[in-house]
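To the team - coenzyme A complex, inputs and output below.
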Amino acid sequence: MAELPPEEIRIVEFTEDDAEEISQLFRQVWPLAKEYPPHWRKKRMYTPQQIIEDMRLGYHYFGSRLGGKIVGVYKAIITDKGLFGEHQTVSPSCRVSGLASAMYMQFEQYAREHGCPRVYCNILVGQTASEHLMQKFGFRPWGEPYEQAPGMLVQMYEKPVV
Ligand SMILES: CC(C)(COP(=O)(O)OP(=O)(O)OC[C@H]1O[C@@H](n2cnc3c(N)ncnc32)[C@H](O)[C@@H]1OP(=O)(O)O)[C@@H](O)C(=O)NCCC(=O)NCCS
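Output:
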């Protein structure tokens, strides 16, 4: 994957059959995401059942496989405001290989194909990689930073879909 430019990384939609593997990736990545408060990291480690419930509520889980194994994922839902993305998670073994970038490109493409006026997401204030991705893909701050969880400041960003 590291040799591929982001536009050539294949992003697919996962199904309920993938819930166990997605849960394993969450349980691998989130304990190490020390920029986030411990209670939030714990909350991000969804069980397979939580993922299945999410899918039934209308969340789409998208991501990529390497050698058949899920190495990156995020979830998105269509709302009255646009396409909302969250929970982006990349395996430590695949970092800085363009996987998150490929997911942002597909995020916007999916929104365009489904008539969503914008893509939007919350970014942890001070999370260097994600703030860099916002700048790289032309997102702009939407509103003021706010506490998404106690002691955890996030900024919502949006990008109009044209
Ligand atoms: C944030 C995260 C999704 C980024 O994934 P990734 O696949 O490594 O990102 P990419 O390879 O697409 O890199 C995107 C850009 O950010 C830069 N970047 C990545 N990690 C970085 C870091 N720790 N510090 C500074 N820049 C970084 C890359 O150099 C790249 O820049 P470029 O495209 O201009 O060359 C990943 O680190 C992760 O899963 N972290 C833990 C969970 C998390 O914080 N999720 C965010 C939830 S909103």
